[in-house]
Amino acid sequence: MEEITIHEFDFALINEFFTELDRQGPGSPEETIRALGFIDNLSNKTKIADLGCGTGAQTMVLAQNTEATITALDLYAGSIEKLNVTAGKFGLQNRVKGIVGSMDNLPFQNDEFDLIWSEGAIANIGFEKGLNHWKRFLKKDGYIAVTYESWFTDERPAEIEKWWLDAVPEISTIGHNISIMQKTGYIPVAAFTLPETCWIDNYFIPQKARQEEFLKKHAGNKTVEDLIALMKREADLYSKYKQYYGYVFYIGKKM
Ligand code: SAM
């Protein structure tokens, strides 16, 4: 039987589920700070763009650990609304601004940013396409830091290979992704894998209560039942095959 893939679900429905959670993808404050440690010359003049920011978990970490001004962009208006409220609660509204927009048509000037950040989102445009398209918005010697789904091994069991090729057709190995970074005009600075806790404790476990709540809210809705079943399968596959894949932080410097 053909399996349903994530692409078959409505963008608004997926976001309605995820915006109630602190994060919309695997990650953690510790790993955001670790990646930030590779960026030179941060100051109160630094301008950061956070693309596919969701409700802004990593945006707040960036704001609290730098003096930079941050523009956070996401296609889903509900997430941006929440991000701007959170920035206000933290007293960061003067340095953090969430805007609705698409990462493949950015409303920015050439050479506007010192740093482009994107956690768990570049697959929406494609790794190579994103690196290429976003480069002109970075100053020379500016940095890019993205997390992206990556294979840890050259060979994988067919079940997990198929799952990821359906979700992210371009998924590749760390070595290949670093070569793409170099080919698209960045000097690779660092690459490190996100620990399992970023997936299990910060992504899958918080989903459980939300799944029950969401099923109740949409009782009898077959599409919602299918979406939740897909999310549960994603978690099961992770526990079965996590030695073969994960998110990798890729950090590069524009040449
Ligand atoms: N960075 C957040 C995090 O780690 O919690 C969110 C990651 S979530 C997996 C991916 C995000 O990309 C979602 O918030 C989604 O709305 C956003 N997105 C998808 N396509 C987009 C596009 N074309 N332009 C901007 N954002 C997009």
Give your account of this protein's structure:
This is Ubiquinone/menaquinone biosynthesis methyltransferase. GO terms for molecular function: methyltransferase activity. InterPro entries: Methyltranfer_dom, SAM-dependent_MTases_sf. Residues 43-163 form the Methyltransferase domain. The protein has 255 residues and is α/β, with parallel strands linked by helices. It has one domain: 3-Layer(aba) Sandwich (Rossmann fold), CATH 3.40.50. The protein is 42% helix and 22% strand. The protein has nine helices and eight strands. Strands 1, 2, 3, 4, 5, 6, 7 and 8 form an eight-stranded mixed beta sheet that branches. Helix 4 (77-89) links the parallel strand 2 and strand 3 (96-100). Helix 2 (29-36) crosses helix 3 (57-64) and helix 8 (196-217) runs antiparallel to helix 9. Bound molecules: S-adenosylmethionine. Residues 15, 23-25, 27, 52-54, 57-58, 74-76, 79, 102-104, 119-121, 124 line the site of S-adenosylmethionine.
The CATH topology corresponds to Rossmann fold
Please, how many domains? 1
The profile of the biggest β sheet is:
8 strands, mixed
Shape: globular
Distance between the termini: 48 Å
Number of helices, counting only DSSP H or I runs of 4 residues or more? 9
User: What is the CA-based Rg, rounded?
Assistant: 18 Å
CATH architecture: 3-Layer(aba) Sandwich
Written as H for each helix and E for each strand, in order along the chain, the element string is HHEHEHEEHEHEHEHHE
What is the number of strand segments? Answer: 8
